[in-house]
Write a structure and sequence with these properties.
The protein is mainly alpha-helical. The chain has five helices and three strands. It has one domain. The protein has a three-stranded antiparallel beta sheet with strand order 1-2-3. It is elongated and about 50 Å long.
């Protein structure tokens, strides 16, 4: 016996076009995947502290961003809002709680705002904080700009 889908399910299945919030979430995900893979090849990319754990976090966040971006608009919106807040807070708290020190990951100079979350595995410096603030601000800007796109359009 065949399953019969209701009208909403059928229109959702027919429509593969993504709205702006979904496209931006997918774009953010791809950018995080690029940062994660580049960090594996170049752990000191632009002076960042890209340890394997740090790269893994970027890769996982990128995969989830692409996945949520490809799903419903409300999920893309919620993911971008939550992760944007997390990235922004990680960057800001890095400047608040960072202390002068030498990173143990890589061959980098002393940093005035070093945060050792997991010593020898996950250390964040000033450049990392700036990048996290930029990523978080961009995600939150995306949410604010495309907040009307979080609900699917009625046909």
């Amino acid at each position: 016996m065949a399953n019969v889908a209701n009208q909403n399910q059928m229109s959702r299945l027919r429509s593969t076009e993504k709205n702006a919030i979904q496209k931006m979430t997918i774009t953010i995900g791809i950018a995080l995947l690029v940062i994660g893979f580049a960090g594996v090849l170049m752990p000191q990319l632009f002076g960042m502290h890209l340890s394997m754990l740090h790269n893994l976090i970027h890769l996982m966040t990128g995969v989830f961003a692409v996945w949520f971006g490809a799903s419903r608009p409300s999920r893309a919106f919620n993911f971008t809002l939550i992760m944007g807040t997390v990235y922004l807070l990680v960057g800001i708290t890095g400047f608040i709680f960072g202390v002068p020190g030498y990173p143990t990951t890589g061959d980098l100079d002393a940093d005035q705002n070093l945060v050792r979350i997991v010593p020898d595995f996950l250390e964040l410096g000033s450049i990392d904080h700036i990048v996290h603030i930029l990523i978080g601000a961009f995600m939150l800007f995306t949410c604010y700009t495309f907040k009307e796109d979080r609900k699917p359009k009625k046909q």
